[in-house]
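Tutorial, part two.
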Amino acid sequence: MGINYYYVTKKCKECGHSPDEATHHIGKFNYNNVFIFCGRDPTRTSWKEWRDWLKSGEGVIYDEYDEEIPFEEFELLVTGSLGNTYSFYEKSLKNTNILGDTKIWEDEEGYPFWNTWFS
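Running the prediction step on this input gives:
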């Protein structure tokens, strides 16, 4: 269990729908108080790259319940989770390939990334 977060760069003012190409999965804050970044976007492979883009104001951060999250609140969530231990399963797979192209790694600051689909 956990909560997924998304960066939405375009949303219909009438119906609230956002096209797939305008919805970017940032990652998930999971049950053991660790934020794991979704590493499928090759242009953003570190918290610094995500932080710079999120601060740009190009879009809005939402959680999976469609609640808007201010950047400052999201930043505290992410930075507050650094150093928390993620599961043995996740640790054992760090920096290794599983299921072909699936990989877990940490950026230069120690934030975990996982380049697979997760719910």
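Strands lie at 2-8, 23-30, 35-38, 60-63, 68-69, 97-98, 102-106, 112-114. In part three we will examine how such features are distributed along the chain.
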